[in-house]
Predict the 3D structure of the following.
Amino acid sequence: MALTRTPIYQATVRSQLLLGGERTLVLTLAMLSALLIFSAQTFKAAVLGAALWAVGMYVLRWMGKADPEMSRVYVRHVKYLTYYYARSRPFREQ
């Protein structure tokens, strides 16, 4: 009996990036920048919102190149304890 091979296409396992950064973070940055620009409606707010967008996109693209899922990895890392005791479970009988 011959083995069947199933091709795995790169598009099915590739991370979802938007403009080079993580999709949710880029959309959140766009929303915050637009909120700042359109809610204040001053020239200073527009310049600040554009600067926030430019710097934020630079950081998000850098993160996307380093690791496309860096924010999810960081959130999981924060949940870990700093020290694990040398016991199998905390309430074991001695």
Notes: The beta strands are 17-18, 21-22.
